[in-house]
Amino acid sequence: MLNSHRIRKIKIVDNDELRNEIAKKYSSQNQIVLAEWSLEMAKHIIQFTNFDTSIYPEIKEGFEINELWQKGKARMYEVRQIGFKIHRIAREQKDELSKTIFRVIGHAIASAHMKEHSIVASDYAIKVINLLYEKNLDKVKEERMWQLDKMNELSSLKQMDKNSNLYLSFSARNSGNCEAIAKHFMKKKDTYIAFKDLFYNSCSKCEYECFKDECKYRQDDIYNLLDSFNSYEKIIFLVPMYCGNPSSLYFILSERMQDYFNHNEEKYDAFLKKLFIIGILGSKKESPLFMPILSSWFEQEDVEGHVLGIERHLYNQKLDDTVVTNAALKSILDSFFKKNIECIEDNSNE
Q1: Is 285 strand, coil or helix?
Q2: Taking the model in full, what pTM does it have?
Q3: Phi and psi for 307 in degrees, rounded to 5?
Q4: Helical ranges in 50-95 per DSSP H
Q5: What domains does the chain contain, in order, with CATH numbers?
Q6: Distance CA 331, CA 15 (A)
Q7: Residue 155: how many CB atoms within 10 A of its CB?
């Protein structure tokens, strides 16, 4: 499963050398790059074949949802639903070429769900070439070169901007304090993800496969989410308190990290260096276990620079009040962000 992208899902006449080079490059890309690459590839195939998309509004909708997902503005549920629609249309096509073009489009859109769909989309693009130019390896090479060049181009563009941050909310609701804090700090290039909107499984109903080989739920969104952490400069966890503890969504991700870091041990220290946690609670006195759980990632001397607790009850905040509208709490947030995340020293008292 770890190298499933190297195995073709369909039978095609291909250029093995270029396909292997793409698979190798694919392994080092984050999911956003691959989603963008997939859409570019689908649009390229549509243009190359003069395929009429005007009677299928689902295609435009799918592209837009994928693009919104790349910006953290679409839910995984929406990605999956439009993907299902496209593949249903593919099954309804009478000729093999139209059906295959829809497969390219469907897998390209679904790359926002699982990045493996992107490499499958590239294989279906080659099947399109096979159908148009039977056993023509020169045309296959041209298409694979286009794919490789496009991936290199998009990868280079993403690498030019190393300053983007990821804000990951573990809240179970929309428009709560976690989202408000993220929007308060986010720049245009940053990404916001609500964990509740991902397709995920908790650690249950298994036989500890992650200790022996790999997690049985590898095909949900969590592994790809963790893999995407490598492309961000800073990662900010936003964790609400439920019944005196961090939300259950927070624990789901924490438990599922076992599988990822078992296979990527060399990435763990870098992850901790870029991880910052903002917990929203009533007060430390009322809920003494909440902050120690969030702080347990770090050595004691590093906690202050990586973990912040926002104690709402100390400032008479009610359930529906927003912390960023309180001047004192906003000041605490801004100070922590400026000093630890932006790494700007406060010299106002000098």
Answers
A1: coil
A2: 0.68
A3: -130, 135
A4: 57-70, 76-92
A5: 4-159 (no CATH), 165-341 (3.40.50.360)
A6: 58
A7: 18
The highest-confidence range among 5-14, 220-229, 323-332, 335-344, by mean pLDDT, is 323-332
Query: How high is the pLDDT of residue 162?
Result: 60
> What's the chain's average pLDDT?
90
Contact of 224 with 114, CB cutoff 8 Å: yes
Distance CA 177, CA 252 (A): 20
pLDDT digits 0-9 by tens, 164-205 = 899 999 999 988 999 999 999 998 888 888 999 888 889 999
User: Is residue 190 classed as helix, strand or coil in its secondary structure?
Assistant: coil
Q: How far is 4 from 34, CA to CA, in rounded Å?
A: 16
Tokens 């837009």 locate to 64
Distance CA(117)–CA(110), nearest Å, equals 6
* 241-280 confidence digits (pLDDT tens): 999 999 999 999 999 999 999 888 999 999 999 999 999 9
Dihedral-angle region of residue 175 (phi above 0 means left; psi in -120 to 50 means alpha; beta otherwise): left
Question: How far apart are alpha carbons 215 and 253 in whole angstroms?
Answer: 13
Separation of alpha carbons 86 and 106, rounded Å = 5
User: What is residue 308's three-state secondary structure?
Assistant: strand
Q: How many helices (H) and strands (E) does the chain have?
A: 15, 6
